[in-house]
Amino acid sequence: MAGSSIAGMIVGTVFIVIFASATVTMVDNINKAQQATDVNLPDPEINLITATWTDDTDELVLEISNVGSETISVNYIYISYDGASPFSISTLTLDSDIVTDGTQTQTGSLFPGETIHAIQTTVETPPTDALLVVFEYSSSVTVTQE
Q: With respect to CATH, is domain 46-145 assigned 1.10.10?
């Protein structure tokens, strides 16, 4: 009889250890999941100042300015014409208005206070409206023709 009560205590202790281990693992996973949801997305302020269609060259030139305080990669800046599917401006020709040592610079980022021109030459007909989107921020203008 004493042997069965000792065996019962051993089995009970094993179950307590397994339960405690599972609880610790669960708490650790809950903490990791909570940390994964604490993502701080940038809060950019980027304005689409003008969108100009040039009849002579069939080019659409977008003037974009970072009026906020955060540097944003051009890979995160999307443009859409007349409600069509958006695409990244990183696929366009980018010309910076910032001149350093007499030459224009082109980077993969739009710095605070910087204005760039994104030039698209593959638009067959001039759009009416242009919409710029970056994270939760958006800006739109009516396309003008020259």
A: no
